[in-house]
Every structure is written in C-alpha cells, then in structure tokens.
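Suppose a colleague, Dr. K., hands you the sequence of a protein chain of 57 amino acids and asks what its three-dimensional shape might be. Before reaching for any lab equipment, you can write down a predicted structure in token form. Begin with the sequence itself:
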Amino acid sequence: MSVSKRTMDNLIRRRRLPFIKLTSKLVRFPNADVDAFFAQNLRVKAREEACYELTEV
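The predicted structure, expressed as tokens, is then:
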C-alpha cells in the first residue's frame, strides 16, 4: 500500500479509517476493513503503460 504516514494519521484522527490502538504508539488495522475503505474512498492513477500491459495479459 502506498499511502503516506501523514494520510494515515489524518484518517485515524478523523475516525474515517477503522483501527485498533494497542498502545500510545502502536496501532493495528483490520485488513478487510482497510481494503474495503480504500476501495471505496481512494482512487489510484495508473500509468498508461501499466494499463496497456495489464490488458494484454
């Protein structure tokens, strides 16, 4: 996953991303919930070459 630490911190602070806080510095994220959140809320721009290679396979 290519999301910056600052983006993750902002999502946690706004309570938009599901998380479990184990200690003051240790946070865990349920994989299924995070995948669903990113699928619904974030868009990834793909390079044209990468899209072309994927369509040929």
